[in-house]
């Protein structure tokens, strides 16, 4: 795709007003969708990338950023984010849970606090976007994709809904009377009633249908996933749960993203054959009754079978530590290139966001990070972070407290 500067300036960007034209020049550029470019240039106009290459001309009036000796990547995408949905690590102040176990219509958009101090913290780790998911029941609601910039929640939202969340882990047994089989039976009943209601809306309005398994608003919220318009993000950790998720995908023609998949390595070939991406925590290796087969090279084994991996570590330190989880995946056998894709392009593809970002390609929104070095290296840092073409602040509440209380 080729855009002239004039064409790019005509494009609109959702959210905050577009920034000036910016030229990032001289760094090692990692487009992700193609090989790295030494001494590369990225040109941004009106919030979008309009050129990526070597020795590109500088548009008149552009701000030039010297990235010599730096690494330039797409902004990282955290597919299991929570920044902005409550006060960090304080469960009593979270906004991502609604009472009841059948809440597919629950949408987090209006629960996002654009002023939350966790948002700039995420940016310090080069994380420019995230998928915020509800939790707490076996059908907790829909996930929302956001960019971590904006003065209001509506400015942050990139895609809503981004996925229907379904929990088939041990936490959902109560929804089925204490049995996974009961939970699956209940889910199938809800799916069947949603499809039946969709076929017989007029009869429903006339009161000519039997009682449904849930209120109509909840059944309506299942339909986008059942029509394959949005993916179903299915939390499944044990091998049996992963296999059941794959059965559901086949039975209802769902576009599935597996989440967790602690024992996914045991059925890696089946996951690959189904073409299902897996969002997992590569640092999770402590066995539990919801995943006795936990191992650090889970991502490596799945990737070796051909599965696209989405690294989504729920780290106590927050979203900013996503890159360290990717680095640990490399430590345990994943290739560096695949680990970078697992926090950029592959989450974008999994949640139908790849037309917006995930790689440094012409026409995409300019979510770009300039790093001091290898972003998967603990010693490197994000020096400049651009979201939708605007440079964002990397100052956090931690900085403010340090400056306030540090001794001379």
Keywords:
about 400 residues, alpha/beta, Urease, subunit C, domain 1, TIM Barrel, 2 domains, 8-stranded mixed sheet, 13 helices, disordered N terminus
Walk me through this protein's architecture.
By secondary structure, this protein is an alpha/beta fold. The protein has two domains: 1-75 and 357-408, Urease, subunit C, domain 1 (Roll), CATH 2.30.40.10; 76-356, TIM Barrel, CATH 3.20.20.140. Helix content is 27%, strand content 22%. The protein is built from 13 helices and 16 strands. It has helices spanning 5-10, 118-124, 153-156, 180-199, 201-205, 216-226, 239-252, 268-274, 298-304, 322-331, 336-341, 345-350, 397-405; strands at residues 22-29, 37-45, 48-53, 63-66, 71-74, 76-81, 127-132, 141-147, 157-167, 232-236, 256-260, 278-280, 309-311, 368-371, 382-387, 390-391. Strands 1, 2, 3, 4, 5, 14, 15 and 16 form an eight-stranded mixed sheet that branches. Strands 6-7-8-9-10-11-12-13 form an eight-stranded mixed sheet. It is globular, with a radius of gyration of 22 Å.
Tell me the layout of helices and strands.
Blueprint: H1 5-10, E1 22-29, E2 37-45, E3 48-53, E4 63-66, E5 71-74, E6 76-81, H2 118-124, E7 127-132, E8 141-147, H3 153-156, E9 157-167, H4 180-199, H5 201-205, H6 216-226, E10 232-236, H7 239-252, E11 256-260, H8 268-274, E12 278-280, H9 298-304, E13 309-311, H10 322-331, H11 336-341, H12 345-350, E14 368-371, E15 382-387, E16 390-391, H13 397-405
Parallel strand pairs: 1-4, 1-5, 6-7, 9-10, 10-11, 11-12, 12-13
Antiparallel strand pairs: 1-2, 2-3, 5-14, 7-8, 8-9, 14-15, 15-16
Helix pairs in contact: 4-6
